[in-house]
Amino acid sequence: MTALAAVLLTGCGPKQAASAPLPGPAATAAALRRASATGRVPDYTFEVAHVWPHDREAFTEGLIYMKGVLFESTGLNGASTLRRVDLTTGRVLQETRLDPRYFGEGMTILGNRIYQLTWRSHTGFVYDADTFAVRRTFSYDGEGWGLTTDGEALIMSDGTNRLRFLDPETFRVRRTVAVLAGGVPVEAINELEYVKGEIYANIWQTPLVIRIDPATGRLLGTIDFSGLLAPSDYGPNTDVLNGIAYDAAGDRLFVTGKNWPKLFEVRLRPRSR
């Protein structure tokens, strides 16, 4: 394990007050690495194509690239926001703040609506994508973690190994899929992004991102982002990897983390053995 991987696996995240990792993320990381080592699941590494500035004060929970800009959801009670951000400068172009009782979580865009989850309030918000005006709210059982869309359904994670596919109008659960690695439930699925027919998902408290078949939940690959953020870039509040965005027009993948000063444009490549 690299030094950064150790930091990420033991770093305190928003859903945990203690400094030690929960059994779920640790067990999941071990199962994923076993699956990759045995060749059952393709394993990918990365190269950095470009580095962009990122607000070190942004506790990133959701990230989207659309229409030439980033949309970002940030967390923490009293600091949760929905933002429109300039990619090249990291400057916040537009922002709305959530009521302090809400802890902002995953976010996605479908049509001209932005959908944003909250952690334990069982409440989601639907915004106008242009004005950020709240159009409606919705409710759901359990916790809200990550959110993406396949263009038809909202796809939601809740910290377990199950993904929910929600109707974007009624918010009823259309179906669920379970994600397993070698028979072991892949717990702590967090931030989500829909990329070329796959779901990319960050595993909370780890430097790992998994690629999921949305039809079956089958693992299509693992990506290890250990070493992405250099130790010299760490500050007192630097937290775990979280935040995946995809530029479909430019075929660009972006990743960042909570309170990271940088956002990385990365290219994936199969790990040589």
Structural write-up:
By secondary structure, the protein is mainly beta. 8% of the residues lie in helices and 47% in strands. The strands form 5 sheets. The protein has an 8-stranded mixed beta sheet. Strands 2-3-4-5 form a 4-stranded antiparallel beta sheet, with no helix packed on it. Strands 6-7-8-9 form a 4-stranded antiparallel beta sheet, with no helix packed on it. A hairpin with a 4-residue loop joins strand 17 and strand 18. Residues 1-13 and 16-22 have low confidence and may be disordered.
How are the SSEs ordered, and which strands pair?
Layout: H1 3-10, H2 23-37, E1 43-53, E2 60-66, E3 69-74, E4 81-85, E5 92-97, E6 104-110, E7 113-118, E8 123-128, E9 134-139, E10 147-149, E11 154-157, E12 162-166, E13 173-178, E14 180-181, E15 184-185, E16 189-195, E17 198-203, E18 208-212, E19 219-224, E20 241-247, E21 252-257, E22 262-270
Parallel strand pairs: 1-19
Antiparallel strand pairs: 1-22, 2-3, 3-4, 4-5, 6-7, 7-8, 8-9, 10-11, 11-12, 12-13, 14-15, 16-17, 17-18, 18-19, 20-21, 21-22
